[in-house]
C-alpha cells in the first residue's frame, strides 16, 4: 500500500506552461496552422509530460503483463488456458505478435508474470512479480483480496520504475490472460454502471456471448463491487494483469513518462488508474480502437480518441507498439522542422545564390 500511496501522491499534472511554449513552437513551423493535426497534439502533450521542447521517445518498452483467470471454469473463452503462459514466454523470447510489431518500431517487450497459474523457470526470461496463482472464479466470489489487488497495481508500478531507471522514456501497456475480456467487461460495467450486455464482446473467441454476459452479470450480483472504489472493483471482478497495467500507467505518470495504451483491456486498466488519480490522463496516449465493442465506450469514458483503426483485437500491447512510430514522427516534427521564418530566409538566400 505504501508504494501505491506514495506513487499516487507524487503524480502532478503535465506542465501547462511548457505545453503553451510547445504550441507556440508548433504554430511557428513551416506549415498551415494546425495542419499536422494529432501529430501536433501529441508533440504538445509530450512537451507537457517531459517538461522539454526537445523531444525524445527513442527508448521504448511495451510492458506485457500476464495472468490467469479463475472464471475460465465458467466456459467464457473457447481458447485453452495454457495460451497465457505460452504467450508470456513468447513475449520474453520475442516471437509473439506484439514482439514483431515492437521490433519494427525499435521497441523492447518486457514480459511480466503478475499471476500466471504455473511457476516459470528463470530461464524463461519472464520477470516474476507473481501476486497469486491466477484469480479465483469471480462468478462464485471475489477474484482476489483487496491486498492482492493493491499488490498487483504495485507490481506494475515497480516494473515502470525499473524500466525508467534503465533509461526507458516511453512505456506502453500490454497483456495476456485468457478470459481477461470477461474481467475487463465486468470492471467496466461495475465501475460505470453499464449493463454487461452493452460492454461485452467475443474476446478471443467464445461459444456463447449470451452465456458470457450472464456470467458477468452473476459476478457483479454476487460480489457487489463498489463503483466508487476502483480497488474494490478490481479485487472483486478484475484481474491481476489489469491491476498491473493500472500500475504501469500510475508509475509512468509518477515518473513523468508518457504511456501508450493498447486496446480494450489496456483501456479499462487505464480507467482504473484514472479513477485512482485523474491526473494520469495527462500522461496517457491512446493508440488503436480495438474491435471489442466495449473499447469505444472505454475510450470515451477516458476522454481519449484512438488514432488508428486497424480492425485489430489481438491485445498484448500490439496496437500500442504500432503507434510508437507516430510518436517518433511527432518528436521529429518539433525537433527538426524549420519555422516559416527560417524557411523564408533560406529561400531568399537560395534565390540570391548565396548557398554553396
Ligand atoms: O486488446 C484487445 O482489445 C483484445 C480484444 C480481444 C481479445 N484480446 C486478447 O485475447 C485474450 C482474452 O480473450 P478472452 O476471450 O479469453 O477473454 C487476451 O489475452 C487479450 O490479449 C485482446
Ligand atoms: C493464440 C492467442 C494469442 C493471443 N494473444 C493475446 N491473446 C491471445 C489469444 C490467443 C488464443
TrEMBL record:
Pathway: Nucleoside biosynthesis; alpha-ribazole biosynthesis; alpha-ribazole from 5,6-dimethylbenzimidazole: step 1/2. Its EC number is 2.4.2.21. The active site is at residue 316. Coiled coil: none annotated. It catalyses: 5,6-dimethylbenzimidazole + nicotinate beta-D-ribonucleotide = alpha-ribazole 5'-phosphate + nicotinate + H(+). GO terms for biological process: cobalamin biosynthetic process. The keyword Glycosyltransferase applies. It is an enzyme of class 2 (transferase). Keywords: Cobalamin biosynthesis, Glycosyltransferase, Transferase. Pfam families: DBI_PRT (PF02277). InterPro entries: Nict_dMeBzImd_PRibTrfase, Nict_dMeBzImd_PRibTrfase_bact, Nict_dMeBzImd_PRibTrfase_N, Nict_dMeBzImd_PRibTrfase_sf. One of its GO terms (molecular function) is nicotinate-nucleotide-dimethylbenzimidazole phosphoribosyltransferase activity. Catalyzes the synthesis of alpha-ribazole-5'-phosphate from nicotinate mononucleotide (NAMN) and 5,6-dimethylbenzimidazole (DMB). Belongs to the CobT family. This is Nicotinate-nucleotide--dimethylbenzimidazole phosphoribosyltransferase. It comes from Ureibacillus terrenus.
